Amino acid sequence: MIKIIIERRIMPGLEQEYEEAAREAMRQSLGARGFVGGESLVELGHSDRRLMITKWRDLRAWKEWYTSEERSRVMQRVLPLLTEEERIRIYEPTTH
């Protein structure tokens, strides 16, 4: 199991539009093979800063989704609403 952490900064005033686009992106990922779950968070006191945390079966499943036509399509709605490129980090459980 891996977790993908995605940080996004939204253009001021476009938060509602972003929420709709991000919900659609999450809906699409629900059908992706290897998708386990996810959540979307807003930074306290900073409505332009968002954090997506998604869980995937393995790195291959994430890469399949990341390069998929479906993700590309939904991200066409999300990316224009951002002030900078999204930052993606991949985490795995420690081996203790």
Automatic annotation (TrEMBL):
GO MF annotations, alphabetized: monooxygenase activity
Claim: Oxidoreductase is one of the keywords in the record: yes
Presence of keyword Oxidoreductase: yes
Gene3D superfamilies associated with the record: 3.30.70.100
SUPFAM superfamilies assigned: Dimeric alpha+beta barrel
A Pfam family assignment: ABM
Keywords for the protein's UniProt record, in alphabetical order: Monooxygenase, Oxidoreductase
ABM domain residues: 2-91
Protein's name in the database: Antibiotic biosynthesis monooxygenase
Organism: Halomonas mongoliensis
Lineage: Bacteria, Pseudomonadati, Pseudomonadota, Gammaproteobacteria, Oceanospirillales
